[in-house]
Write a structure and sequence with these properties.
Keywords: Signal. It is a single chain. The chain has about 160 residues and is of the alpha+beta class. It has one domain: Nuclear Transport Factor 2, Chain: A. The protein is built from four helices and six strands, in the order ααββαββββα. A six-stranded mixed sheet has the order 2-1-6-5-4-3. The longest helix has 14 residues. It is elongated, with a radius of gyration of 20 Å. The protein starts with a helix and ends in a 7-residue tail after the last helix.
C-alpha cells in the first residue's frame, strides 16, 4: 500500500525547491537593465554584465548574422561605438512576461554624427524593436536573448541606400 505522505513529499519538495517565477517588478528591472547595456557609455567593464547575464549568454539578432555567444563577446558587442551615431538611448516602451521569459518592445534614440552618412550631425535618429529574454530562475540571469528591430529604418535615416 502506498502512503499519502510518500506521494505528497516529492511534490512538496519540488514546489519548495523550485525558484519562484519572475514578478512584474523583477521583469521590468531585468528588461531595463538589458536594454540599457546598448545605450552609449553605460557599460565600461565586463564585470558589470555578471549581474545581468550568464557566462554563456546567447544573443541572437538576425540583422547581424551569427549569434553572440558568451559574456566576452557580449561585452565586445555592447561596447562597440558606432561611428554613425552618438548619445544612444534604448529603453522599453512596454513589457510583458511569463514565468521565465520577458518580451520587451523598445525604442532607440540617438543623434547622427554626420560621419559616413548624408545627414547633418546631430540629426535625431529613432526606431523600435522587440527583445525576447529568457531568464534562469535560479540565478535570475538572462541566458538567451533574441532581438528584432527596424535596422532598415536606421540606415535610411542616415541616408544610406538599402537594397532588399
Amino acid at each position: 500500500m502506498v502512503s499519502l505522505s510518500s506521494l505528497l513529499l516529492p511534490l512538496l519538495a519540488s514546489t519548495v525547491l523550485a525558484a519562484p517565477c519572475l514578478d512584474d517588478n523583477e521583469a521590468i528591472h531585468i528588461a531595463k537593465k538589458w536594454l540599457d547595456i546598448w545605450s552609449s557609455g553605460t557599460i565600461t567593464k565586463e564585470s558589470q554584465l555578471t549581474t545581468l547575464v550568464t557566462p554563456d549568454i546567447q544573443s541572437y539578432d538576425g540583422t547581424y548574422g551569427q549569434a553572440t555567444v558568451g559574456i566576452d563577446a557580449l561585452f565586445a558587442s555592447c561596447t562597440y561605438v558606432d561611428p554613425l551615431v552618438k548619445d544612444v538611448v534604448q529603453v522599453p516602451i512596454f513589457i510583458f512576461h511569463s514565468c521565465d521569459q520577458i518580451a520587451a518592445r523598445w525604442t532607440y534614440n540617438a543623434l547622427s554624427t554626420g560621419v559616413g552618412s548624408t545627414v547633418k550631425a546631430n540629426t535625431p535618429i529613432f526606431f523600435h524593436g522587440t527583445e525576447l529574454l529568457h531568464v534562469d530562475l535560479q540565478s535570475r540571469l538572462i541566458y538567451n536573448s533574441t532581438s528584432s528591430a527596424d535596422w532598415v529604418l536606421l540606415a535610411t535615416q542616415l541616408g544610406q541606400t538599402v537594397n532588399l
